[in-house]
C-alpha cells in the first residue's frame, strides 16, 4: 500500500451526528485535499480552485463503484452520490485510467446525466482546453454533483441555484444577449417563427375597424342621426329607415376589410407552412430528449440533493463501470442518434438545426455550423440509422480503446468535409438588402470539424435582436456535454469547463429570406425567429391605408353638414324662435337636421365601396396583366393620382442576370455576331495543345504559335491580343465550377461566385472556347470547350479580392508547362499577375494608352458595366521579393491593410499591360425602357432606391433610360461633413435638370440633419438614384416625400428589403420575384412584371379615379336634390319639420329606384386603352384632382338646388301644396330625373348601363300600383298627371343639358381633344 499523503485535518460535515449513513457523507476537504506547497501546473486545479501539487504521493484508492453502490444502497432516502465517481485530478491510480482520454490528458469530471439520461455515456471524454482555468466548486460542480457542501459555500450555491430556476421561467428579454443551445430545447421562451402581414387580430379587428370607420365624419354624423331616432320627440318615420343603411354600410365595409385580412393570413400561412428539414438529436435507442435539469438546493435546506433515477439505469451504469475496471478498457462512447424530421416554418424554434440545400429560403436568422458536399452528406445521413451505435463523439477517435473501423470512418468523413467543402457556402441576399452579389459565408472551424452528432455540445452566444443586416458579434462554445450547453449561465473567465470557444461574425450567419446558392448541404442553428429576425425588424408594421379620394369626400361632407345645419337654423329663424308651435325651437332644429340628413348621403360609402370592388375585379381579370392581385381594395383610386414612383432596382427594373455584351482590345471591338471571330482566334491559339498531348498553353506559347497563323501582321497582332484577353478573363476571377442536375435529369455545368459579373465573364470565355474545368485553393484548370482537353493549368500563388474601396481584383498565377504531377518550382513556369477593375482606378495602373478613356465612356453611355483588364509578367526573383514583403506587411499590428496595399502598389500595380475592356449588361426586365418613358410623360417623377453598389446603379439608370442621354449626373458619396452637405444642396438647387446619385451613407446624413432641405431640392429633380440604401432608409425617403409634398407616392419592389418602403407608401406595388413572395404579400397590389405597372396606373388607375369622382358627385347630387325638395315643402308648410317622402319612398329612392343606374357609372370610360397609353398626358391632369374639386362640387350643388326647387315648386304650383297628388308628381319626376341625368353623364355606353336604366324604370312603373298609401292612384291614370310630369322634367333637364353642351364646345376636355370629337 503506498504511503498516504498528509492531508489537513478534516472538518466535521454538516450532517447530524446520528445519521446512519454518515460514512458516506463526504466533506469538501475529503474530495479536495489541500496540497503541499510545490510546483503549480497550469490547468491542474482542484475543485476548490486551489493549485494541486503533482509531486506528492498518491492517495489510497477510492473506487467509483463504492461511491455508486453507497448511493444506491440508501435508495430513495439519499441517492445523490450517484454522480460523484469522478476523480478531480490525476492523483489516483485506479480512477485515472477511467477518467483519461486516449491522449493521456486527465479528466476533471463527467456527468452521468449530461447527455440526458443515465444510460448515456457514463465517462464521456472531452477535448480539454489547457488555457482555461478551473472554477470553484460552487460555480461548476454543483451543476453536476448532488453533494453536501460546507456551510461557507452552501448558501452561495443555493442562491445561484435559485437564480438558475428563475432563468428557466423567464420570457425572452429582447434587450439582452441570448444563449442558444444547439439542437436542444431552450430554457428561455422565444417568439414563434411566424411571418405575419395581417393588419388585425381577432381581438383588435372590431375596435380598430370601427374606429377607422367612425373617424370619418359622415359615418359619425349618421350614427348620431340614427341614435337620435331613439328619442320620441325627434323620431320621423321608421327607425329602421336610419338604422338599416348605416348597419348595411358597416357590414359591407367590415366584411371587405375582414376578407382582405383573411386573404393576407392565408398567404402568410402558405409561407409559414413551408416545409424544412430539421436534425433531431436523440439518445441511442430512445426517442426522448434530454432529461430536465435538476434543482439545486442548499445543504442547509435539505440533506443533499435528491434525484430519482430508475434502478435499472443505475445498475446498468455500475455494470459498465465494473467492466471497465476489470480490464475491458475504456468503453466506447455512445453518440447522440441523429434523425431528420420535417417541420413547417412556423414550428421552427430557436436552437433547431436546419438542413438547407441549394435554392432553400432561409426561414429565420441562423448561424452556419457545417457545410457538407452533397455526396458526403448523403453518406453520413445514410450511415446514421443502421450504425448509430458505432458513431463516435468527435474527440473519441483519439480514445485508446475505440473501435478501429469506426475511427477510420470518422477520420475519412472529416477529411472529406475539409477537402470537399472547407465550410464555405454562398447565399443570395437580394431579398434582404437588394445586393446582387452572392455572399460567401463560412462555418466556424470549431463546428465544421465536429461530427454532426456532436453538435449538441455547442452553444451560441448572440447579441440582442438588431435590424443591422451587416453586423453580428457572437461566440460559439464547445462544451463537455449537452447538459452543459443547455445551461443558461454564461461561463465566467475564471471558470474552466474544458470549453473551447470561437468568435462568430457576419461571415458565419445567414439571415431570414436569404437563399442558399451553393450545392453543398448547409447545417445551421436558428438564433432569431419571427419578429426578432433582421428582415422583420427592418419592416414597419402593416397599417390601414385610406385613399386620398376618401379624405376629399370627407371634407366635402363637412361642407354639406354645415349647409344642413345652416338650413335648419334658417328655417326655424324665419318662423321665429319664440313663435314655434307645439315644440321648443331647438327640437325643431334637430328634427330639420334629421329630415335633411339625406344631404349627407350614407349610400355614398356603399356605392364607393361597391365601385372599388368592381375596379379590383377589372384589375385581377385583365388579360394584359396576368397574375395581378389586389390585396388592399380600399385604394384603387389612388393609382390614378401618383406623382412619385420609388422603385427598387434588383429584380424590379433588372432581372439580376448578367451577360457579356462587348469586348474591346484596343484597335477593334467585338459584340454580338462578331464573337464568332473571337472563338476562331481562341481555337487557333489552342492548336498547340492539341498537337502535343503533354504540353500546356501559357501566354508565351500562345504568342509564338500565333506567328504561323493569320494572313497579315495586323491580323496576327489582333489575334494575339484577343487570345491574351480571353486567357486573362478565364483566370482572373473568384469563380468555382460546379455540376448540377437540370430539370431533365442531365448533369450540367454551372458556376458559383460572389459576383454575377464574374459568372457572366466566365460563361463568355466558355462560349468562345475556354472553359473553367476545376478550381481549388491552389490550382485552376482550363479546358478547350470543343474537345474537352486540358489546355491550361495554373498554380494560384496569391489572390487580391475585390473590395468596394479598391474596386479591383488581382491574381498571381504560375503556368504549368506540361501535364505533370506535383507542384512545379517557382523557376520552372511563367509567373503572371492579372488584374481587372473599374476604369477609374485602373487608368492610373495600366501603361500609357490613348483609347481607354474614350472606350469606357462609350460603353458607359450604353449602360454597360465596364471592367479594364491588364497583366504583368514577374520573374521568380521578383515574385519572391514581393511575397516576402507582403508577408511582412501582413504581420504588422497597426496599419496592416494600408501596408499590404502599399506593397502591392509598389511591386505590381504599375506599368501593367492593358489587354482590353469588357462590357457586361445587367439584363433589364421586359419593356422597362418604354415603361419608364411612358410614366415620365405621365408626369410621374421616378426615384430608384437600391441596396446595390454606386457603379451598378449608375449603369442601370443609364441603360434603362432613367437618366437621359447627356443628362448631368451629380454624385454624392461618402459624405461625412455638414458643410459639404450644404454645398451639394446649393448646387442641386441651381441645376434642377440634373440627376442626383447618392449613396446610403450620404443619404443618412441628409435624413438626419437636413431632411426638409434635402427633400425640397430633390423633389425638383427629374430623377434621383439612391444606392446602398437600408430598408429603413427607403421607408424614410417615402415618408419624407409624402409629408413634404402632400402628393401620392407609389413604391414598387420585389424583395424582403422593399417591404418597409412598400408599406410606408400611399400605394405599394409588389412584384412576384424569383425568390420569395414577401414584397408581393405585403403590397397593396401584386403584379408579375414591371411593365404591368404602366397599365395599372395609366389605365386602371385613371379609370378608377375618374369613375369614383363621377360616382361620388352623382350620389351627393342625388341626396342634395331630395333635401332641397324637402326644404321647399317645409317652407310651404309654414316651416314645419314634416317629412315629404316618408318610410318606403325614402328607402326606395336611395336603393331600388336609383342605385343600379348610378352604380353603373363605374363602367364608364372616356377614352379607350390605346389612347390612354398613346397620350399619357391624360394621366398627368388627374394629379391636380380636378375631377373632384371644390369647383366641381359647387357646380353639382347649384344643379341640385336648381332642379330640386324647380321639381318641388312646380309640383306644388301645378297640383297642391300638400297631398298625395303632389307627392305622386314630385316623386315620379324626381326618379325619372335621376335616370335621365345618369344617361346624360355617360360618355361611353355599356350594355349593363342600358339594362340598369331601362330595368329600373320598368321596376318603378311596376311598383306604382303598390304605392297607394303614398300616391293618388286614380290621378295617375289621368292625362293631367303625364303632362305635368313631362313639363317639369323638361324644365329641369333641358337647361342642364344645354349648359353641358355649351361648355364642351367652348372648352372641350382633354379626352375629347385626343378623340378629335
Automatic annotation (TrEMBL):
It is an enzyme of class 7 (translocase). Residues 1-15 have a biased composition (Pro residues). The keyword Translocase applies. Residues 16-33 have a biased composition (Acidic residues). It is a multi-pass membrane protein. The active site is at 648 (4-aspartylphosphate intermediate). This is Phospholipid-transporting ATPase.
Amino acid at each position: 500500500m503506498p504511503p498516504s499523503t498528509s492531508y489537513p485535518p478534516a472538518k466535521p460535515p454538516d450532517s447530524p451526528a446520528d445519521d446512519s449513513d454518515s460514512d458516506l457523507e463526504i466533506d469538501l476537504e475529503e474530495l479536495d485535499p489541500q496540497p503541499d506547497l510545490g510546483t503549480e501546473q497550469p490547468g491542474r486545479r482542484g475543485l476548490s480552485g486551489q493549485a494541486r501539487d503533482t509531486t506528492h504521493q498518491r492517495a489510497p484508492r477510492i473506487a467509483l463503484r463504492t461511491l455508486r453502490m453507497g448511493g444506491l444502497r440508501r435508495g430513495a432516502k439519499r441517492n445523490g452520490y450517484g454522480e460523484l465517481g469522478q476523480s478531480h485530478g490525476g492523483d489516483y491510480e485506479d480512477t485515472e485510467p477511467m477518467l483519461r482520454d486516449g491522449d493521456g490528458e486527465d479528466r476533471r469530471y463527467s456527468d452521468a446525466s449530461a447527455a440526458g439520461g443515465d444510460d448515456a455515456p457514463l465517462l464521456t471524454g472531452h477535448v480539454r482546453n489547457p488555457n482555461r482555468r478551473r472554477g470553484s466548486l460552487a460555480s461548476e460542480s454543483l451543476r453536476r454533483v448532488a453533494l453536501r457542501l460546507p456551510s461557507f459555500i452552501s448558501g452561495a450555491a443555493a442562491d445561484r441555484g435559485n437564480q438558475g430556476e428563475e432563468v428557466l421561467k423567464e420570457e425572452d428579454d429582447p434587450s439582452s444577449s441570448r444563449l442558444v443551445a444547439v439542437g436542444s430545447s431552450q430554457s428561455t421562451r422565444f417568439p414563434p417563427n411566424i411571418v405575419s402581414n395581417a393588419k388585425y387580430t381577432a381581438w383588435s379587428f372590431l375596435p380598430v375597424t370601427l374606429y377607422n370607420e367612425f373617424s370619418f365624419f359622415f359615418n359619425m354624423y349618421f350614427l348620431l342621426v340614427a341614435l337620435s331616432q331613439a328619442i320620441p320627440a325627434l323620431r320621423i318615420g321608421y327607425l329602421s329607415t336610419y338604422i338599416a343603411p348605416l348597419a348595411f354600410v358597416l357590414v359591407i365595409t367590415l366584411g371587405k376589410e375582414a376578407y382582405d385580412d383573411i386573404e393576407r393570413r392565408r398567404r402568410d400561412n402558405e409561407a409559414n407552412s413551408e416545409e424544412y428539414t430539421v436534425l433531431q438529436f436523440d439518445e441511442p435507442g430512445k426517442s426522448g430528449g434530454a432529461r430536465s435539469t435538476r434543482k439545486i438546493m442548499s445543504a442547509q435546506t435539505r440533506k443533499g440533493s435528491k434525484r430519482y433515477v430508475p434502478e435499472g439505469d443505475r445498475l446498468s451504469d455500475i455494470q459498465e463501470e465494473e467492466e471497465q475496471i476489470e480490464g475491458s478498457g475504456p468503453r466506447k462512447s455512445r453518440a447522440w442518434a441523429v434523425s431528420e424530421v420535417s417541420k413547417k416554418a412556423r414550428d421552427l424554434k430557436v436552437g433547431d438545426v436546419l438542413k438547407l440545400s441549394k435554392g432553400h429560403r432561409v426561414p429565420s436568422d441562423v448561424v452556419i455550423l457545417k457545410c457538407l458536399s452533397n455526396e458526403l452528406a448523403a453518406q453520413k445521413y445514410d450511415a446514421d440509422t443502421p450504425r448509430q451505435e458505432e458513431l463516435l463523439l468527435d474527440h473519441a477517435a483519439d480514445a485508446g480503446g475505440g473501435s478501429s473501423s469506426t475511427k477510420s470512418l470518422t477520420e475519412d468523413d472529416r477529411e472529406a468535409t475539409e477537402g470537399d467543402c472547407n465550410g464555405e457556402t454562398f447565399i443570395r441576399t437580394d431579398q434582404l438588402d437588394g445586393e446582387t452579389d452572392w455572399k460567401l459565408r463560412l462555418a466556424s472551424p470549431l463546428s465544421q470539424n465536429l461530427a454532426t452528432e456532436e453538435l449538441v455540445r455547442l452553444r451560441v452566444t448572440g447579441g440582442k435582436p438588431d435590424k443591422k443586416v451587416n453586423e453580428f458579434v457572437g461566440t460559439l462554445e464547445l462544451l463537455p456535454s449537452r447538459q452543459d450547453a443547455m445551461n443558461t449561465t454564461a461561463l465566467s473567465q475564471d471558470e474552466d469547463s474544458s470549453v473551447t470557444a470561437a468568435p462568430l461574425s457576419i461571415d458565419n450567419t445567414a439571415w431570414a429570406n436569404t437563399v442558399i446558392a451553393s450545392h453543398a448541404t448547409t447545417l445551421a442553428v436558428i438564433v432569431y425567429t419571427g419578429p426578432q429576425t433582421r428582415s422583420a425588424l427592418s419592416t414597419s408594421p402593416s397599417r390601414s391605408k385610406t385613399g386620398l379620394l376618401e379624405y376629399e369626400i370627407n371634407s366635402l361632407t363637412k361642407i354639406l353638414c354645415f349647409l344642413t345645419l345652416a338650413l335648419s337654423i334658417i328655417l326655424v329663424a324665419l318662423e321665429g324662435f319664440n313663435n314655434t308651435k307645439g315644440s321648443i325651437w331647438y327640437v325643431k332644429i334637430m328634427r330639420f337636421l334629421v329630415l335633411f340628413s339625406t344631404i349627407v348621403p350614407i349610400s355614398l360609402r356603399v356605392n364607393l365601396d361597391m365601385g372599388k370592388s368592381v375596379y379590383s375585379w377589372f384589375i385581377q381579370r385583365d388579360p394584359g396583366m396576368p397574375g395581378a392581385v389586389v390585396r388592399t381594395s380600399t385604394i384603387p383610386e389612388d393609382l390614378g393620382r401618383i406623382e412619385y414612383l420609388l422603385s427598387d432596382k434588383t429584380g424590379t427594373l433588372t432581372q439580376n442576370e448578367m451577360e457579356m455584351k462587348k469586348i474591346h482590345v484596343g484597335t477593334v471591338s467585338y459584340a454580338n455576331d462578331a464573337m464568332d471571330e473571337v472563338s476562331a482566334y481562341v481555337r487557333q491559339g489552342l492548336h498547340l495543345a492539341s498537337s502535343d498531348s503533354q504540353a500546356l498553353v501559357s501566354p508565351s506559347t500562345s504568342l509564338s504559335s500565333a506567328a504561323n497563323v493569320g494572313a497579315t501582321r495586323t491580323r496576327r497582332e489582333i489575334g494575339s491580343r484577343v487570345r491574351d484577353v480571353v486567357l486573362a478573363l478565364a483566370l482572373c476571377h473568384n469563380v468555382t465550377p460546379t455540376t448540377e442536375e437540370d430539370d431533365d435529369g442531365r448533369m450540367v455545368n454551372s458556376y458559383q461566385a460572389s459576383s454575377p459579373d464574374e459568372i457572366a465573364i466566365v460563361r463568355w470565355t466558355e462560349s468562345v472556347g475556354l472553359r473553367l474545368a476545376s478550381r481549388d485553393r491552389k490550382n485552376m484548370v482550363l479546358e478547350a470547350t470543343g474537345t474537352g482537353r486540358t489546355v491550361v493549368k495554373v498554380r494560384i500563388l496569391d489572390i487580391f479580392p475585390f473590395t468596394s474601396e479598391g474596386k479591383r481584383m488581382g491574381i498571381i498565377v504560375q503556368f504549368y508547362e506540361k501535364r505533370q504531377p506535383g507542384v512545379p518550382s517557382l523557376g520552372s513556369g511563367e509567373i503572371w499577375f492579372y488584374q481587372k477593375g473599374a476604369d477609374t482606378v485602373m487608368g492610373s495602373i495600366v501603361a500609357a494608352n490613348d483609347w481607354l478613356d474614350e472606350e469606357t465612356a462609350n460603353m458607359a453611355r450604353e449602360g454597360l458595366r465596364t471592367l479594364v483588364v491588364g497583366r504583368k509578367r514577374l520573374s521568380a526573383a521578383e515574385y519572391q521579393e514581393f511575397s516576402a514583403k507582403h508577408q511582412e506587411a501582413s504581420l504588422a499590428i497597426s496599419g496592416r491593410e494600408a501596408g499590404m496595399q502599399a506593397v502591392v502598389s509598389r511591386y505590381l500595380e504599375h506599368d501593367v499591360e492593358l489587354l482590353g475592356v469588357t462590357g457586361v449588361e445587367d439584363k433589364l426586365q421586359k419593356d422597362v425602357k418604354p415603361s419608364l418613358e411612358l410614366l415620365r410623360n405621365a408626369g410621374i417623377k421616378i426615384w430608384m432606391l437600391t441596396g446595390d453598389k454606386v457603379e451598378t446603379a449608375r449603369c442601370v439608370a443609364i441603360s434603362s433610360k432613367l437618366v437621359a442621354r447627356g443628362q448631368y449626373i451629380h454624385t454624392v458619396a461618402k459624405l461625412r461633413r455638414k458643410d459639404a452637405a450644404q454645398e451639394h444642396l446649393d448646387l442641386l438647387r441651381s441645376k434642377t435638370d440634373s440627376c442626383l446619385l447618392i449613396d446610403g451613407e450620404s443619404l443618412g446624413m441628409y435624413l438626419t440633419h437636413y431632411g426638409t432641405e434635402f427633400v425640397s431640392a430633390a423633389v425638383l429633380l427629374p430623377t434621383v438614384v439612391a444606392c446602398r440604401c437600408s430598408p429603413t432608409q427607403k421607408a424614410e425617403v417615402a415618408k419624407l416625400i409624402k409629408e413634404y409634398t402632400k402628393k401620392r407616392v407609389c413604391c414598387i419592389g420585389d424583395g424582403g428589403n422593399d417591404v418597409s418602403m412598400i408599406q410606408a407608401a400611399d400605394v405599394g406595388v409588389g412584384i412576384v420575384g424569383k425568390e420569395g413572395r414577401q414584397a408581393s404579400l405585403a403590397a397593396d397590389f401584386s403584379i408579375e412584371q414591371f411593365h404591368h405597372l404602366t397599365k395599372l396606373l395609366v389605365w386602371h388607375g385613371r379609370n378608377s379615379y375618374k369613375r369614383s369622382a363621377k360616382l361620388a358627385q352623382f350620389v351627393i347630387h342625388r341626396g342634395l336634390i331630395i333635401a332641397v325638395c324637402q326644404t321647399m315643402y317645409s317652407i310651404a308648410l309654414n316651416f314645419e319639420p314634416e317629412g315629404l317622402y316618408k318610410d318606403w319612398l325614402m328607402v326606395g329612392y336611395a336603393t331600388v329606384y336609383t342605385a343600379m343606374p348610378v352604380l353603373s357609372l363605374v363602367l364608364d370610360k372616356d377614352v379607350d386603352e390605346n389612347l390612354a397609353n398613346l397620350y399619357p398626358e391624360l394621366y398627368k391632369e388627374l394629379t391636380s384632382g380636378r375631377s373632384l374639386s371644390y369647383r366641381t362640387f359647387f357646380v353639382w350643388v347649384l344643379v341640385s338646388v336648381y332642379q330640386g326647387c324647380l321639381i318641388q315648386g312646380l309640383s306644388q304650383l301645378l297640383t297642391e301644396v300638400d297631398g298625395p297628388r303632389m307627392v305622386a308628381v314630385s316623386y315620379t319626376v324626381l326618379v325619372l330625373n335621376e335616370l335621365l341625368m345618369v344617361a346624360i353623364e355617360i360618355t361611353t355606353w355599356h350594355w349593363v348601363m342600358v339594362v340598369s336604366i331601362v330595368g329600373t324604370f320598368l321596376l318603378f312603373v311596376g311598383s306604382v300600383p303598390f304605392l297607394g298609401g303614398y300616391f293618388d292612384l286614380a290621378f295617375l291614370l289621368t292625362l293631367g298627371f303625364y303632362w305635368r310630369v313631362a313639363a317639369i322634367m323638361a324644365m329641369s333637364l333641358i337647361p342642364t343639358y344645354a349648359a353641358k353642351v355649351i361648355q364642351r364646345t367652348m372648352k372641350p376636355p382633354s379626352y375629347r381633344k385626343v378623340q378629335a370629337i
